Structure prediction request, 175 residues.
Amino acid sequence: MLARFGDLRHLSRAEASELSRLEGVGLARSTTLSAAFELGRRAEQGEAESLELIEGPESAARLLRTVLGGLEQEGVAVLHLGARHQVLRVQLVALGTLNSANVEAREIFRGAIAVASAAIVLGHNHPSGSPEPSQDDLRLTRRIAGCGETLGVTLLDHLVLGEGSYVSLRERGAL
Prediction:
């Protein structure tokens, strides 16, 4: 990778789609690398001293786009949050097909338990560009909210990301 981009600075600025074309990288790994580079940039800018706070769906959508933006298939990501809704971890938990991504509750909550999350924000993209939630999206939201109640981890929101927009299922009354 360094041979292709010259140095770490240029590599860190590469788009996920560009990284995915490298031999042995693929889409999932390129998305993870892009998210890691973005977090590194934030740390470099001094944001590591004060963890980013999720203050509503807009700030959550902005952060979820760093992981899910540009994917050509559905992906599911989780923002793991502390008691004051500070971001503890951003995790890509599933990659699917053009119009679906199967994800199990245990995959979502495994990371939440590992970092002692008080709350999570679930997000997934719709490669079609439309952020309108499907019936499957609504069922997933209800299932994850119920599991979270059992575990003591609040599902704050489930965001469906489209091309340049998003839908908050909390704002739509699904939570």
About this structure: The chain has two domains: 2-47, 57-168. The longest strand covers residues 87-95. The first helix runs from residue 2 to 5. The beta strands are 75-81, 87-95, 119-125, 154-161, 166-168.
